[in-house]
Known about the structure:
The complex is a heterodimer of chains A (253) and B (182).
Chain A: H1 2-9, H2 40-58, H3 69-89, H4 97-114, H5 126-148, H6 166-205, H7 212-249
Helix pairs in contact in A: 2-4, 3-4, 3-7, 4-7, 5-6, 5-7, 6-7
Chain B: H1 2-21, H2 31-162, H3 169-181
Helix pairs in contact in B: 2-3
Amino acid sequence: MAGQAEAHGEGSGLVFHPLDQFKITRLFGEGPIEWYTPTNVTLWMALAALAIVVVFVFGSRGRALVPSRIQSLGEVAYSFIYKMVEDVTGHDGVKYFPWIMTLFLFILFANMLGLLPMSFTPTSHIAVTAVLGFGVFFFVTLLGLFKHGFHFLGLFWMSDAPLILRPVIAIIEVISYFVRPVSHSIRLAGNIMAGHAVIKVFAGFAAIALISPVSIVAITAIYGLEVLVAFIQAYVFTILTCVYLKDALHPGH
Amino acid sequence: MTATTTTTEVATDVAHVAEKAGMPQLDFSTFPNQIFWLVVTLLVIYFVLSRIALPRIASVLAMRAGTITNDLAAAAELKNKALASEKAYQDALVQARNEANKIVADAKADMQKDLNKEIAKADADIAARAVESEKSIGEIRAGAADAITQVAKDTAKELIAALGGSADARAITAAVTARLKG
């Protein structure tokens, strides 16, 4: 609240608050933010879920042989992710397709809705992406151990490398394996946060009459880039999830 | 009491500083809230997708693929039919042409035969008439020769009589015949 007052209270001078847009606030009333408090996180996640329902449930309501535009959108997304899962993980990965579709659509819709002016982007928060990233990590690790037991550790043991190098490679492989969830989650949050912050910084410059045209052109250009990033990050997160899942299902290289 | 106040003050101070300068992303007090709502949202999306949306879209896609396959098969069948009927048409055309050629050839042959027959008949007729004409010319010629002999005999007899002689008829004939031969 204090930050907001400060942001609105600025009368003179150039004051940037590029990170204010990431603040988590209560939707109703005053008070501390408990785990159950409805916040702007709740609102924008609910809107993402609602948008998904609109496109994928109401859009496909007609079950038309010749699809309407919105039904076509749902079908394209379905085919896109289904093909990705099948291509990367193989046929036995298809049963995890609904979860991967959930991840993809949640990230995509949260990113896209976050590009609306005055909105809030849940995927710009490391807490959210870390839950996603570590969730995927623990799931595929446990799945690999459960399915293959000790053989799952063969993932780290390059049997086609020279024997003397294998322990070294194994150490590197283990480190890179445990870095996966960190990079997986920070990549998403970092990209989204950086883009939004840059737009905000340029928006701050737009207050100066002399450079405001440049600033507005820059905002427009970066906004276009951010639309691309919103999609690409959802895609990257999803395809990496598929790759990790493939490692769990088929640990042999 | 004082210790508590100090701690609280320090805590608020730290929180204030964090709020002012730090990133909202690193405000750990909001983490449980975010994680809770994230899990709720993901479960909602998962159930909506896995129970309603994905099976429905899968069935629509399968239905469409089936329809397209059937339509393609039907189209192929119709194309084969069209090709077959075109072939039949071409065959009929070729056959009709052959028949027409045969009829023309037959007609030509018949006409040739009739013509040959007529020509042969006409030739025979002409030959017969030529023989007849030859015969009548021969007769005429023979008649003329006889008449000349007769006239020569008569003339010779008359000449002899006019010159005051009398001649034997046989001698005159022999002389005239000898003369006509020479």
